[in-house]
Amino acid sequence: MNLCIIATGGTFDKRYDPINGELGFADSVIPAALARARMNAEVDFVALLAMDSLDMHDQHRRQISDACASAPQQHIVIVHGTDTAQQTAQVIAQAAHQKTIVLTGAMVPYEIDGSDALFNLGFAMAAAQLLPAGVYIAMNAQVFPWDDVRKNRQAGRFERNR
Amino acid sequence: MNLCIIATGGTFDKRYDPINGELGFADSVIPAALARARMNAEVDFVALLAMDSLDMHDQHRRQISDACASAPQQHIVIVHGTDTAQQTAQVIAQAAHQKTIVLTGAMVPYEIDGSDALFNLGFAMAAAQLLPAGVYIAMNAQVFPWDDVRKNRQAGRFERNR
Amino acid sequence: MNLCIIATGGTFDKRYDPINGELGFADSVIPAALARARMNAEVDFVALLAMDSLDMHDQHRRQISDACASAPQQHIVIVHGTDTAQQTAQVIAQAAHQKTIVLTGAMVPYEIDGSDALFNLGFAMAAAQLLPAGVYIAMNAQVFPWDDVRKNRQAGRFERNR
Amino acid sequence: MNLCIIATGGTFDKRYDPINGELGFADSVIPAALARARMNAEVDFVALLAMDSLDMHDQHRRQISDACASAPQQHIVIVHGTDTAQQTAQVIAQAAHQKTIVLTGAMVPYEIDGSDALFNLGFAMAAAQLLPAGVYIAMNAQVFPWDDVRKNRQAGRFERNR
User: Fold this and answer.
1) In the 8-state DSSP scheme, what is residue C57?
2) What are the backbone dihedrals phi and psi of residue D91, each rounded to the nearest 5 degrees, phi first?
3) Are the beta carbons of D18 and A111 separated by less than 8 Å?
4) CA D144, CA D133: separation in Å to the nearest integer?
5) Which of A37, A128, C145, A17 is nearest to A137 (CA)?
6) Cα D120 to chain center, whole Å?
7) Hey, is the C-beta of C38 within 8 angstroms of any chain D C-beta?
8) Are C79 and C5 in contact (CB under 8 A)?
9) Would an 8 Å CB–CB cutoff place C37 in contact with chain D?
10) How far is CA D38 from CA C108, C112, C159, D35, D41, in A?
11) Rounded Cα gap, residues B111 and C138, in angstroms
12) How far is A141 from chain D (nearest CA, A)?
């Protein structure tokens, strides 16, 4: 499958640590999530970063953009924290990769009851295969162009800018 | 959202009955699955049928096709049993609806550990929004044209005919 | 820990098979359930049988009773199908083991949403450690003497005989 | 059933808030957990406190002890944070209630994959019904007298003092 999944952390991949009682990062949940889809061919998975997107600096965003460039695939899903997904999308868009790049994430971690993570991963993997080249954010069962989306923090949803 | 979800039953929606110890049908799990996506607008949900697709006859398939025609939306996801999804897709395709109609299902019921149902629903909802008019089956993170797909029953996966 | 867990199958341990679409038996879920308890010492686990209790014959019940006798532990939990747990309890009681033996099971398989299996396992493991020698059935947050219990099949609950 | 469940918060009852991205307190999960046990009679449930046990002061512990006194039941389970369960147990023990009072909790919140909460609740509910009057902590499939237990914070387990 001409598709690559790049993990960068974010709520999607946060895991509970019973020793310190906090949500943090350990091994990514994404391989387990992908296994549920029972794909005919293995999809490439790159565990690039494991961080809260509020802690990202420009260097991290460039690192993600570089990973998009060096991936042999034309279609890319990036699992990212929702708080700064737009900033990363902008850095990627400015690099003009001529690929279809879809950022997604989750409002509730994969391993917590009622999580949207698995839904969003499925949604983003279809979007990345079907959309023309460009940079998009896929959340809340919707595809947004990277330059026409904002996170409504009160509602916990992504919406168009206007 | 210009999208309608039609439930017809199938493994996706099978639920355990503690009294008789069997998997069967009760209220559809789809509204709960959709709530996890935290959509900006409610999506239309039609609980049309609740049956094993091996028990479907032509009248059921015509009923599903008619529901596609009468839905005001242009984009439709049908949650269907995997065993005869192709037959239903054929009946729908012959009706030439000029809509984008995506059938999906699950290999493991939504409420059982490790289910692919939520992933498939997300995947199909993106596919239904992005594909041109036509009839498709979306399973295993892949979009198949309705006339080029078969279920490999040994592997529990959908694949191209050839 | 002076405690042994004996698996015999039953609803507790039924697992969904995505290929044939039915609930059946595979590796027991009990080791995974026990790991969640984060015990200080490993508990002995014996995977004796994996069957529906409606399919049990006297030889199976004697096999279970013999496993109780040969276990080095004084306290035993048997995970069993709910439909004939009383019959097995009677066979064990007639063997007069001078041990504390608690049968439990589940109305919903461990791996299905809303299962009572983990609750029942915890309940039975406390009961087996605290009750005097004898044979008991522990279900529905209650301890029943083996000769004063019946399964109310309409309600899906165990209750006293009278 | 001559049994009362008192909620005070703790990890057992922590819930994820998708808006602020943190674990906190909302409606208790305990009624949903109890429903899974399919009890013959409803058990009394008291939602007394909803707090991290590290934030408890003496007044909270006295409030819990008073709730034990005023409960009409002889057998009581207290769901409590694990970090200061011993201190609360001591305050309760000093009040000399002549009841069987069992404190339990969880290392992983009820609504997170792999949680011990449901197991611990079942274990504590059996212990509270079967132990003589006294104050106990039930964790890790073990019953500890209140004055011979400590939480090993590195291992995330309760153990005897020595």
Assistant:
1) -
2) -60, -40
3) no
4) 13
5) A128
6) 9
7) yes
8) yes
9) yes
10) 11, 15, 11, 6, 9
11) 26
12) 17
Query: Is the CB of C19 less than 8 angstroms away from the CB of B113?
Result: no
Nearest-Å Rg of the Cα atoms of chain B is 15
3-state secondary structure of A128: helix
pLDDT of residue D96: 87
Say whether B36 and A115 touch across the interface (CB within 8 A): yes
Q: How many CB atoms lie within 10 A of CB C35?
A: 12
Cβ atoms of B101 and B67 closer than 8 Å: no
Kind and range of the H or E run holding B75: strand B75-79
State the SS3 of C67-121.
HHHHCCCCEEEEECCCCCHHHHHHHHHHCCCCCEEEEECCCCCCCECCCCHHHHH
Pairing of strands A100-104, A75-79: parallel
Is the Cβ–Cβ distance between B64 and B48 less than 8 Å? yes
CB B91 within 8 A of CB B117: no
Which tokens is B80 given? 């269907």
Q: Is A97 helix (H, G, I), strand (E, B) or coil?
A: coil
Read off the pLDDT of residues D54-83 as tens digits, 9 standing for 90 and up.
999 999 999 999 999 999 999 999 999 999
State the complex-level ipTM. 0.98
Query: In this predicted structure, what is the pLDDT of residue B1?
Result: 76
Judged by DSSP in three states, C41 sits in coil
Rounded distance, CA B144 to CA B158, Å?
9
B36 contacts in chain C (CB < 8 Å): none
Number of CB pairs, chain A paired with chain D, less than 8 A apart: 36
Nearest to D141 by CA among D160, D120, D125: D120
Nearest-angstrom CA–CA distance, B137 and B80? 10
Question: Could you report the per-residue pLDDT of B83-129, keeping only the tens digit for each?
Answer: 999 999 999 999 989 999 999 999 999 999 999 999 999 999 999 99
Q: Is the distance from CB of A121 to CB of B119 less than 8 angstroms?
A: yes
Neighbours of C55 (CB within 10 A): 12
What CA–CA distance (Å, rounded) separates B146 from B126? Answer: 17
Residue of C53, C113, C154, C158 to mutate, interface with B, max B Cβ within 10 Å: C113
Q: Please report where in the chains the tokens 């040969």 appear, as a residue.
A: C70
Taking Cα atoms as reference points, which of D36, D60, D6 lies closest to residue D115? Answer: D36
